[in-house]
Specification:
Elements: H1 2-14, E1 17-23, E2 30-31, E3 37-49, H2 59-72, E4 83-86, E5 89-92, H3 93-104, H4 113-123, H5 132-144, E6 150-153, E7 156-159, H6 160-171, H7 183-193, H8 202-218, E8 226-229, H9 234-242, E9 250-259, H10 267-270, E10 273-275, H11 278-282, E11 291-293, H12 296-300, H13 302-305, E12 310-316, E13 330-331, E14 338-341, H14 345-363, E15 372-379, E16 385-391, H15 405-411, H16 427-430, H17 440-450, E17 459-461, E18 478-480, H18 482-488, H19 491-501, H20 503-512, H21 533-552, E19 557-561, E20 567-571, H22 572-583, H23 594-610, H24 617-629, H25 634-640, H26 651-662, E21 666-668, E22 673-677, E23 683-686, E24 691-694, H27 699-714, E25 733-739, E26 749-756, E27 763-770, H28 779-791, H29 796-827
Parallel strand pairs: 2-14
Antiparallel strand pairs: 1-12, 2-3, 3-8, 3-9, 4-5, 6-7, 10-11, 12-13, 14-22, 15-16, 15-27, 17-18, 19-20, 21-24, 22-23, 25-26, 26-27
Helix pairs in contact: 2-8, 3-6, 14-28, 17-19, 17-20, 17-27, 18-27, 19-25, 21-22, 21-24, 23-24
Amino acid sequence: MQIISGEQYAQMAENKMVQKITETAPRGSIVTGDGYEIAKSKVGYSVELIYSNIEDGQENQVLLQLYNLLEKNEEEFEDKFPILIEKGSIFFTYEKEEKEWKEKHEIPRNATAEEALIILRDKYNVKDEISNEVALEAIEKVHMNANLPLSIRDGDIIFGYETKELQWKKDFGFKKEEYDYSAEKSLQKLRKMYEIDETLSNEDARKILVFRQMVKAQGFRSWEPIQVARNIKLETVFEIDSRVHELSGVSVASNPVREYPFQNLASHVLGYIGKVSEKDVEDGSYKMRDLKGISGIESSFEEYLKGEDGQRFAVTDYKGIAQNDPTQEVQDPIPGDDVYLTLDYDLQRVAEESLENQIKKIQKTNAPNAKSGAVVALNVKTGAVLALASYPDYNPNLFTNGISSEDWNKLNVLVNDPLYPKPLYNNATLSALQPGSVFKPLMAAAGLQEGVITKHSTIYCGRVYGRFPQFTCLGAHGAETVREALRDSCNIFFYETGYRLGIDNIEKYAKEFGIGQKTGLEISESSGYLATKTDKVQIRTYSTSDYIRKNVGIKGNAIITNEDGTEQAVYKSYAIARELYTQITPDKYEYDSISQLYNRIFEEVTAIMAKYNVKDNVYLQNITRQIMDSRWVTTDTINASIGQGGNSTTPIQMANFLATLVNGGIRREPYLVDKIVDSNGKVTYEHKEKILNKVNVDEGYIDEIKKGMKDVMLQGSGRSGFLGFDHNGIGVGGKTGTAQYGSEKIDNTGWFMAFAPYDDPEIAVVTMIIQGDTSINSVPVARDVIDAYFYNNYTFEEAQEMKKKEEEPKKENDEEEKAEVDQQEKDE
């Protein structure tokens, strides 16, 4: 026995090897300005598998035991093996997905992909002359608001499920003649390929193949650990540890797990984490099992948050089990830096709760289609973001262990329509919609500064605009000054102001205030659009490109040279559209009649399109009409003057505009991150104020605009939402805006913006409810945020009552003390 044991230990000693063990660095925390840790790392445990360390001949046994252990302990782990076994039936997941999709959309079970598309075209009344490519896109984006499992390849309509199944078979080395194998036949092929014991059931074989597929996806990196399950229970840790000798190649590693303790709070600011890509691994920045920031602050400040992994070299036996004699080469992981935000926890919480509650409330009354919105609160004096909320939101904890397909499909709404509620979409920074009447204070500033109106001059409103009768006002206000026009939100006043200014002056002031451009915030944002001649041409260029690609049928790519000399790959249709709008400039042509202008443009379109063999008059006429529509006309200016037409702005833009206006014209870059501190307490990043420009508007004019906005809150459309507010002590100015989207079938966007205190503004708040029907519906949300800022989440009346109650005991004590003093004096 001693001799046998000696030989065994000798063999083990000879088979010892040094193994590098990587220790993942914990991500840095993300903390609010008032100290709440809203994203942090906690210690968790994961199951790791190093396939090359599994004892020879025991691979299938180990994998089956591991699966059964995790299943018994109800641990979550990735299962992407596409063959399912239910009640004895063996089928592909693709077949199940196809069946469920057909049932949901009332398509016969045996319908081919081509037949399915015919049914959908008929259901949604897609005209016969529309190509299948365009029909697919229209059904996806306009009618169903969801991705279709249909695609077109080499002219044939196919199910996406078929493409997935074929690719899977190719990945596993199926021969061409095996591509049509059923799920059952494919399973038998893989059983044979991996020498799975014939006595094992198909269910057990599938369990083994789940992990075999993970190993295959790892490629040639079989010495690297595969993270099979994350954040496992302690009982699972103990069980694996107790069975370490029978589970060769399997180990438990302690590692940091991302946690968002306040669930959905500030989800669009924080963003979420996800698996790294192959490119990340190839670049050497990450390992295959790593997670990184995908959106929000988690992504923007990834280089600070991710830290540096540590490593140690341990001696392992021939089974890959670590021994007690580690080498001295140890490098401890360096935790990521902590990111300190400007957000105020209470304001953020109130903004989110109020927005959600208000949307749900108005859905039951006058705005049934209201399903999304946003709130932004800025520090007027610094540009710091105090609150930034978007609804609907999501729980970033869903991503920390790898999000399930079911949860991902619920959140990842792939619809371009800005009106459609998308949980992962940040409405506060990305939703650019017509601002409506909240644009009017900008028009007042431009008109006063350019001298086309004065503080005392009046413009008469008789409900209909005399220059262009198609433009009207909601009321007949009579002769109004700029202050009165702001109070009453008089369209006629601002139509005429815009007419006098002209679009070039409107564009000048809008740009100075930051409209139609990104604010510079640290997370993703949209620039929106400004109603200008250039932007109108650009928008028409895009639409003409779509027409040429989808209707005329010109496909493929081309290279264009941008104004800065750089080359860019684009659709060939866009290159043609760009050529058309560059060479044909209707605004510069002289003509006696519209028909004369049309004929000239048609001739030039015909000449240019002939180079691309397009001679059909229908196509040429439609392109000519689109170029005619790109001309800037006076009615465009009138429409833009009240925040309609080509104007589209984001809530963060409007909040920064308001802050700029009421702080005296200093436009700062708004910011979310105040500072970043490493694990040793050293500040590695600190925000520095960035003044973008100073808007040239006289202080007296700004005061007059503020007066008009104060009147809105005391006498106008903001009054009801701010009843009981401390108008005398604090004071507030605001402006409502009910913006039309451009279709009578779509409800209005409800905007509201406010600043306070009135005399020395500190906070600017903008609320927007998409399809909120009326701006009045957005006012209560801003009221809640402003109350939270000044009264610690109470209204003014409630705060006064509390103050009164606090003072009553003091008053009683004072009276008692006075009575005692009087008595003493009397006794003396």
